[in-house]
Amino acid sequence: MQKPQPLLKKDQQAPQLPLYQSLEQNLDRVRAILGDSNDIVIREFKLGTKGHKAALLFVDGLIDKALVCENILNAVMIQVRQVEADGEEQLSPQELLTLLSERGISMLEIKTSDDFDRIFLAALSGEAILFLDGVAKALVISARGWEYRSIQEPETQTLIRGPRVGFTETLRVNTSLLRRYLRDPNLKLKTIYIGRRSKTEVCIAYIETIANPTIVEEVNKRLATIDVDAIMESGYIEQHIQDDWISPFPQLQSTERPDHVVIALLQGKVAILVDNTPFALLAPVTLNDFFVSPEDYYERWTIGTLVRLIRYLASFMALILPALYIALVSFHPEMIPTKLVLSLAAGREGVPLSAFLEALVMLVSFELLREAGIRLPGPIGQTIGIVGGLIVGQAAVEASIVSPLMIVVIAFTGISSFAIPTYSMAIALRILTLPLMFLSALFGLYGFILGLFLIGGHLSALKSFGVPFLAPFAPLSIKDLRDTLFRHSLLGMHWRPEHLKTQDQTRMQDLRTDSELAVEEKEKSLAQARPRGGKS
Amino acid sequence: MQADNEQINPLQLVLLLMNAMIGVGVLVVPARAARPAGSAGWLAVILAGLFALVLVWLIARLCQEFPDKTIVEMAIDLLGNNMGVGAVILLLLLWLLSAAFILRTFGEINRDFLLPNTPIEITILGILLAGGYLARKGIEPLARLGQFSLPISILLGLGSFLLSFPGADSTNLLPLWGRGWQGVLRGAASTNFAFVGYEVLLVLLPFLNKPKRAKAAGLVAVGTVTILYTLLTIVCLAVFGACSTAKILWPTLIVARTIELPGLFLERIDVFIYTVWLVQVFLLQSIMVYVLSLLWARIMKIKEHKILVWPLVPVIYFLALFPLNIAQLASFNTIASVSLTIYVLILVLGLSLLARGKGGKARA
User: Fold this and answer.
1) Sheet with A138-142, edge to edge strand ranges
2) What is the average per-residue pLDDT within B214-238?
3) Residue from the list B127, B134, B267 with its beta carbon closest to the beta carbon of A334
4) Which residues of chain B lie closer than 8 angstroms to A286, CB-CB?
């Protein structure tokens, strides 16, 4: 059994598996551990005029071959000979190593290492390792280069107006995208490795002078507790560090858009970027965050506000519409206007199913269509939608399996759930629709309210990294309400969200008047003076 | 990470107190006031409100002297261990009875109004289980949910009642003095139960992050509820007249039934109002379960109130099922709420006097 190793603090630790002096022993060890996988390449060669034995270890496919040939092999095999010829005295292996790293190899990043664990990790993450006979050290040369998807427009969060840039699967590219938006020296990117076997690179990004240090610390603490063999996607991390694993609601936000991440960082949140996936995680989140799209800020405030209202309405409809229909039709028809009741009754004539079963059948078939549409390639997926939605729906009504109004209700529910910008939130609401329908079928409006109350109670108890999920509605913050149901003009958004308790609350010029500032100063000096006064 | 200790702010306390008060009472206040007081029913409501204001002020004043203590620790401090625990256990029992009867009343209304064929045992159980679920989560979620839902409910409720003004006839409010001052007094006594609930301040004050605002919070909460009840009574009296109001079982809902609006999608507003009210009842029960379990936990010196929530639920459940019929329930309810109010008054006055005496000694 291998123990999880804190890779972060490797530098301060004594090597657990120190390198040998002899090159032969080192290479034997490499062969013994890395085995004979045919992508592991060990290039042995002789160095300089004296013919020092040396070897280069790398993984084929993970390094930039041209770079390695040009800047490492060429340098150490040919140029070193000239350097050595200039010098009079013979160099020891140690001096040779220093010479190589300081003057020989023209690569950007070179480190020395004396620990096999680190060397294996480096080699397997795409770095070239140079062993030299006679030194218990090796040079770790950064020469990463592999095939990756180029930057494309993100498919899950498309905007009408906004940058057409999405994250890719390579962490370095993703962090560079963040840097392109923020030329702020306070943007910190801290890297840790998670996963016993995968050793996945995970990057924690935050703006040091804005983010609440306790939240950053909490994120770090929770990440440090993850002990799994591999991190396949940021979803693994999300599920390991969320507050409540039973809750259907997502407690971290995932996004493919660098601009979205930067907006969140500027609000004082922490982003977690994971290698091998274009989805970054944002923490902490509140309910409101799931109804926000970066586009809200790019368009003028009237458009942003309208869109927000529609999204809130959509989420509400996606949650309650089928349940409300069931409750009204089967328990309280007196609430529905008379004319509508008559046409409804006419539509339901001959339908053998109860309102609940009818809704259930329709919801299930809707989900079936949706799932089938995703699995099939683009054009066929659309055909499924048309055949399923139009033809089967029409036929089902004509065959008296479902009533026409039911189709309208389910269609509205479906469309509403697609209007929510965050997929995980839409799914959560769709899941909750079912128990709500069940309660409504059992107890009518009473059950409906019971269900809503339980959902509300759950939401008000939920926290994401210590921040109440319902903020800024409850606990109420009047200041923050300007970025919720309504999107205030950018000119009016002076403050960062209060519930995040950021270090730097103002995001625009200070609007406090001189007298207000003076009062604040006075209070501050009083607060400082008080403890001293107490002591004396 | 923000501190996880449970704290509520003054606004949340106001809304919690209002929530604890607005329950079954809001549906019957006009009838209860109109029966003895006639067309002066609204005066009776104001009088009852004033009494509640005085009592809540007394409670807040007492609690502010011990800002980090609930009634349990206060009573033990001032009365000694045995007496103190006994006094608080009596309070717990009265409270338990009043909560159970309120729950049962809710069940009866629900059967009358929404679900005539569903057994009352089931609806009561549903509300208790939901209450227990939320009560286990602690005071913060309760406060947040209250903050979220109560303003919406009040706005929707008030908005709908404004719509019933076209049916009102101001001559129904005459004579102003109704059946004389005795009627008004008796009306005040019988509407008093609708205000029961602000006593939870005895237990909730240690959770307030600004204890100095407790008095204001209590007064604002009771004052707002008084205004709401008074408005409601005036509307009912104006629409139905004193005689009819007195005879209607749930005048608040029936008055909503009179609302007619062209172009309104919903046929009957009253069911809509009922559902809005239902949310408040759920919240009220959660608060009661929370407060009772907290009180019990403090008496037994258990740190976590959570483990007492589920044992408490069956107790309330069976107490709620105890009355045989509505008539018996009504008399039980009156007895429980009146004795609770009087007991709280005596307890608070007694403790205040004792605290004054002790404080005086300490100062001297």
Assistant:
1) A40-47, A52-59, A127-132, A138-142, A110-113
2) 92
3) B267
4) none
